[in-house]
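Researcher: Quick one. two chains, 283 residues in total.
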Amino acid sequence: MPRNDEPVRYMERTRDYYRAIGYDKDYVWAAHADVPFARLGKPLRETRVGLVTTAHPPDKSNHDANGIRHVWSGEVDPLAKLNTDNLAWDRESTHTEDRESFLPIEAMRLMVDKGVIGGIARCFHGAPTGYSQRKTNEVDAPEILKRLREDGAEAVLLTAL
Amino acid sequence: MSLVSRHLEANGLPTVIIGSALDVVEHCGVPRFLFNDFPLGNPVGHPWKADMQREVVETALRLLETASGPRTTVVSRFAWKEDDPGWRERYGKVDPAERDRLIAVGEARRRRQQELKQGKGQ
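Model:
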């Protein structure tokens, strides 16, 4: 069998899967012609960087009684544990037992020690993943921005499972 | 995550995403993206490969300073495990022979969503 080195077309695969499980309306992925761009206000080695993840807290306390996911935050702690049960990732090919493989807190600390960045913001923040782009744009993203500013973050690394 | 990145950037915070769904992220359009061609779940590097993870993180962070404009995508130098060349074919694959099972999965999902809407969820 010839080896296929092309990146996986996740939008196409997701569409085919949802059709196969009986949905007749395809999900419309976000698409934008214009992309915002901000420059660092100071050298990277002096910049405090915040972290954003799509993972959940171990007790899934970011879910409300109706199953809706909300923004949550955790202390940047090398021992922090997270939950990935309700997220879409490739369970047949890998695992998420090494938190650093999806939220690199220890690697970020080494970047501070090495002088690549000036520091790490006090908390990392959890971004809900869901179907509603309106909720992401109007509720979740502004809340994450607010929390990052409270932490004094000057730039942000987002790691998406 | 792409929409969050865009919102932060529009409000003056430079961002960089590390991820493995190239098509989704580029379709949305983000300022800076480091693409690791790995199965979904380990965007920062293979599990327990700390050296790889550190290099990936450093490469992404440096993009905060070096990217000259939006839609900057950099492809990581790392590949998935050599002993698993078939990983791209597995995720979410629809097997026509499993049609009935997949329909049942969908029906269970829709029932669950309906229950949540009616406030019966936990």
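Chain B touches chain A through 82 residues (CB under 8 Å).
Researcher: Thanks, that's what I needed.
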